[in-house]
Task: structure prediction
Amino acid sequence: HSYTSVHTFYPSAESRKEKLSTWHLFWDDQKITDVSTAIDKQAAIYKFRENTFASFYELLAFRREINTADLDPLREAFLDEFITDADSLYMITAVLKVKAEDKAVVYEAFEGKENIVVFDRQSLTSSFMEGLKDDFNTLIIISLLVVFLILTLSFGRIELGIITFIPLLISWVFTLGLMGLLGIRFNIFNIIISTFIFGLGIDYAIFCMRGLLQEYQYGREKLTSYKTSILLSGITTIVGIGVLIFAKHPALQSIAISAIIGIFSVILITYVLLPRLFNFLIKHEGRTRKWPVTFKDFIFSINTFLIFLTGVSVLNISALILKYLVPIKTVRKKRIAHRMLSAACWIIAFGSVNIRIIIRNKYKNDSREPAVIICNHQSHLDTVVNILQNHRMILLTHTWVQKSMFFGWFVKYIDFLSVDEGLDPVMDQMRDVVRAGNSIFVFPEGTRSQNLEITRFHQGAFHIARELDLDIIPVISYGSGNAMPKFEPFLKTSPVSMTTLPRIRQDSPLIKDTLLATSKSVRQYMKEEYAVIRKQFETPAFFRKKVVRNYLYRGPVLEWYMKTKIRMEKHYSLFHDQLPEKGLITDIGCGYGFMAYMLQLMAPGRRIIGYDYDPDKIDTALHCALNNKNADFITADATKLDPEYSDAFILADVLHYMPDQEQIKLITSCARKLNEGGVIIIRDADAAMRKKHLGTKLSEFMSTRIGFNKTPSKDYKLYFRPTDFYLEVFRELDLDVQVINDTNLTSNLVYILRKRHA
Result:
């Protein structure tokens, strides 16, 4: 063992004082005089100059205490690497060389000593790496947050930001886990290459998401080409860096192994996980969702499911206690259980914060008088809302309900009846139920309606009413199919209305001679009432939400444009009011189909054909979830279009894209193909309104330059004309015209054209 220390040159104050005393005892005045005399005598013999040894004599006669400043020349010459000072703090370094097996003894010897720090090269390197790893982890967290924020802003939806971010996070964890299993430790080289892999993972996730979004928006196969590009990029990167695995230096091998593991993880997880996460948003069980899942839907649905799970658990436990531990009659126990179920349904229904429950029983039907209660069926919510209204009723169910792991035991206990084998086997049980003062609840459709219409009624409910001589209470459900559509596990924000109609007595005109006739009669009655209720809720603002949902996840710019456009158009109410509610409507210049879908939702009897010059817009409109057999979109040049005979034509903001003669030709073609009693609606700018027209020209200038709208000519030329020009064209075509100015911001005018009657 050996050591290097400055303590021999830098003794402590006590040691210096002690040694100075020893010096003074040795060099007393007599000895100094004797030595000085002897030296001077010899100096004279050898011709030394006088006072040559004066400084030596002063040193011998030195009597004051020595401080650290006196040692500075010595420190500057030899000891600077062992002594460090800053801000009145000093660090003295001593180097101790010991065998590796004795290192622990050294640490133990100095353990707990104040102001002493013991370290060796290995621990110093380890501490440095630990600090580097901590800093790296902090930087990774900050980077992840920044990346998530950028992804969310660039895609315009937090949902897309989350599902793009999840594969990045998982691939990072997967890479670290695999490196740990293979015993690859983090070092400075791994850290550097990890940041490189992280950046590649972001690129791959963005490319893959872009392919998915384009497929969803346009219906074009794009994902395969993006995946191929990602794979080629990954292979070239692995080959380029992976070749370092053959290097002899361990650091280079570490870089190669880390790169191979990281890139492989990123590609694998991006390929497998990201498409499945995106499909989770837009599809369910292979079907395209009518309303894609949003972050708000997900959170609200989790909230409702937790309420349901808690309620079912409490309900089952309470029912078990009630059944086996409470000493009262079974009949009373079951009545209490029914009340508990009704209360649980109330909590579930009103605990769903995104659903507004509206209960209407304006006819004040007395639930204590047994009856057969029938309700159209749109959603599982129908059952919940009906039970919370009336605890004195028994539901007829399918067998799967009684086998449910959540509530199967409970519904059996409170006498809900399975009718999978028909009504006759349970008819006597239903008589007992009615004698006990309970009603029978039936969904006469037998299954949930997918299109929210009231479908064909089965005869079972009316057979029960006739056999048991019971009144029928019709209940109309509206909105539950919007809040929780069939084949859709997530709740949507929507009002749910439950309206109870007057009792139908057995002597009512609605009760016919046969069960089939009665079912048709009651169904028709409920359909008429349902239509009245629908009209109250299905306003243009209501349909706007459906159209907005229809264009989710198609890019932030399109989503913003769509919302702005519908709001500025006031939900297309003007067009809706002027157009027939049935018949063929041809929309020339339909764009992305915003107006077409709004008009069809507000009047399902309309069949709409949309034409547009831009194939991207047509593909977007065609691949919306709202698209159906009564809506078609075709790519066509309006100047060469020969439209079908139609009950209405719409030319909104399209004429100024073509020269005068082409405008006249198109208007003439529409007038010639207009059915009797039909209407043509034209909206375009009036160039004569100079001040207002500046705003219109500016908006069109921006839309054509940005790419929202395409012009036939490459010079972006537009052909705005004054009102007089169009009025002259209409007069020559013998069309009645009504001019509507419904905006204060632009020069757009709406022309309502109809054929003149002879």
User: Anything to note?
Assistant: The chain has a mean pLDDT of 87. The first strand starts at residue 2 and ends at 4.
